[in-house]
Amino acid sequence: xxxxxxxDIIFKETSARGxxxxxxxxxxxxxxxxxxxxxxxxxxxxxxxxxxxxxxxxPDLSAxxxxxxxxxxxxxxPAYSDGYIENxxxxxxxxxxxxxxxxxxxxxxxxDYKGEGYAxxxxxxxxxxxxxxxxxxxxxxxxxLNGDKPIVACTESGFYAYGTPWMGKEGRGxxxxxxxxxxxxxxxxxxxxxxRLSEGEVASRxxxxxxxxxxxxxxxxTLELADAxxxxxxxxxxxxxxxxxxxxxxxxxxxxxxxxxxx
Length: 263
What we know:
Number of strands: 12
Order of helices and strands: HEEHEHHEEEHEEEEEHHEHH
């Protein structure tokens, strides 16, 4: 997982990750109170916009970077700072624990349009950043909720996507949530076309966009939540060019609104 925090922060050490430097702070993320244990100052600064005002009440969940996880990540990314690597490991640990609280990580870019969320998914290079950027260009009321790694929650009133401090390499997103109303899988093409996907077709595509826990209980719960999402939220395949026409196609299918009346 890679976050857009700037090269200076990614590669320069801001503090040593030594024992005795532990910080325990509670943050409000995805409507949960999450206690994060970190040693480097990177995560403290990174998550400061989500710091809970009340630090006395118990957390719903705790997350930290284990020594093993940190060591393995450091070996694969030796040029990155300790703080940046610790931050990556913390979010992974958090997301692996989320399913028991009816939440999971979805690799997608989520747009908020008038309080409703639309998730754009696809393989690396499919054009998520480009297409969502075109929404922002042509639809003034659209905004990025999370550019890459939203948390999705299953609630009694439906599915919600959340902005979190972790929002992808471009750092696009904001604090908040939106009712998740549509999924749109993207593929690059020379002509624009859009089709509604069956639940089976969605299943074959979406599972590569999940972070699947290794323990049986949370893995099973993640798949259960994904199945519920597939059943509850319509999904489409958009084969697209970099054009306003592609925006119109996805906008009208996802929102059910007339594009011309909204621009």
